[in-house]
Amino acid sequence: MNMIPVIVFFVACVLSMIATHAMKNIAFQYDITDKPGEQRKIHTHPIPLLGGIAVYSAIVVTLGIYSFFAPKELPSFFGTHVSIQHVLGILCGGAFLMIGGFLDDRYTLKPLQQIIWPMFAVGIVIASGIVVHRVTNPFGGTIELSFLGVPFFSEGITFLWLMIVIYTTKFLDGLDGLVSGMTVIGSSIIALLSFFFFVNIPTGLLAVVTAGAFLGFLVFNFHPATIFLGESGSTFAGFMLGVLAIISGAKFATAVLILGLPILDATWVIVRRTILEKKSPFKGDRKHLHFRLLDAGLSHRQAVFFIYILGLGFGVSALFLQSAQKLVSFGVLVIILVFVLSILFFIERRRKG
Q1: CA distance 139 to 196
Q2: Pairing of strands 47-48, 33-34
Q3: Helix and strand tally (H, E) in the chain?
Q4: Cα 169 from Cα 179, distance rounded (Å)
């Protein structure tokens, strides 16, 4: 068993690199590229999209190879926490994200047309039985959501959680390698939790496959990127992290600590756009944290590594902290964001002034 996760990780990584190279050629052939022009786009020449399809394909093929060819004495992807129905739900949900993402990359859908596909994907996952039934009480024990007596409350919480994480990674996808790298970090930490802390082998294997597939893509996506995730990949990253957090035992605190900075940034951006600026929350601009780090003078890679380090540091801390301590850690993360934004605001004022 000790080498199995490593082998699975390696297979997913290699398949992802092969698929990414193929998708680059296809995207160029059919001119499915991200062209420079908007203020928030920092690349200077067309970059192929469809990277998400390469990642998704690598995950599907790796799962298929392992399930059909691995000896029966090896651990399966299917177990107590992850049934065949669950995996099919994840793959079908992912397929909807691939379809919607392809259409958006090819035809530039309107926001209301874009959101339909994540909603379908989340609905399929919930229908497959992946639902949050309980959450950890930070002050001890767990809270059974079914005891609250509200019809479909668990399904509603699951839907809200997955949509939040999907749109967090979608909004985060502004710098080369940022989303794919954060997904590698997040899924790797969930794999460690599954293997060494909760003995949830199926979830651990699925997390390892996810990490390997996104790492294989990151080879081409790190700055300077030669291919982008596109709409399909940026939403699929959050989709997988959100699902892994549920099937690993509702480890919301762990996922929130890993993606805490992007989640807080996305929340602030939505509040600012809708309440302060009275405009659509989906209208892109350069006021996300990662863009402001660039505007403050950090290089592309420095800005990405800054967010990597925070995500990795708080994610690793989640391996050893109790629930109440994770709540304190999240408070620390909020303070860090406020501190960083204050410094960036000060720098911006000095430059204008």
Answers
A1: 24
A2: antiparallel
A3: 13, 4
A4: 6
Q: Are 49 and 243 in contact (CB under 8 A)?
A: no
- 308 in a domain, yes or no? no
**pLDDT of 258 over the 90 cut:** no
DSSP state of 66: H
291 strand-pairing partners:
none
The per-residue pLDDT for range 152-192, each reduced to its tens digit, is 888 999 999 999 999 999 999 989 999 999 999 999 999 98
- Only one residue has tokens 């409350």, namely 153
pLDDT in the model for residue 326 = 75
| DSSP secondary structure string for all residues of 237-294 | HHHHHHHHHHHTT--HHHHHHHSHHHHHHHHHHHHIIIIIS-S-TTS--S-SHHHHHH
**Alpha-carbon span 325 to 138, nearest angstrom:** 8
Spatial distance between the Cα atoms of 349 and 138, rounded to a whole number of angstroms: 40
Pick the closest to residue 238 from 161, 131, 311 (CA basis): 161
Measured between alpha carbons, how far is 31 from 226 in angstroms, rounded to an integer?
14
Residue 344, domain member (yes or no): no
- Asked if residues 172 and 298 have their Cβ atoms less than 8 Å apart, the reply is no
Instruction: Report how many domains make up the chain.
Output: 1
Tell me which DSSP letter residue 145 carries: G
* 35 vs 12, residue with greater confidence: 12
DSSP bridge partners of 141: none
Evaluate whether residue 322 is within a structural domain: no
Report whether 41 contacts 95 (CB < 8 A): no
Residue 241 CA to residue 172 CA, distance in Å, equals: 14
For residue 243 the two structure tokens come to 């699902």
* Residue % of the chain over a pLDDT of 70: 88
Residue 145 maps to a domain: yes
Domain that holds residue 53: 4-252
Contact indicator for 166, 238 with CB cutoff of 8 Å: yes
Residues 225-262, buried b or exposed e (16+ Cβ, 10 A)?
Answer: bebbbbbbbbbbbbbbbbbbbbbbbbbbbbbbbbbbbb
Phi, psi of 280 (to 5 degrees): -65, 135
Distance CA 336, CA 352 (A): 24
CA atoms within 13 A on the CB side of 150: 9
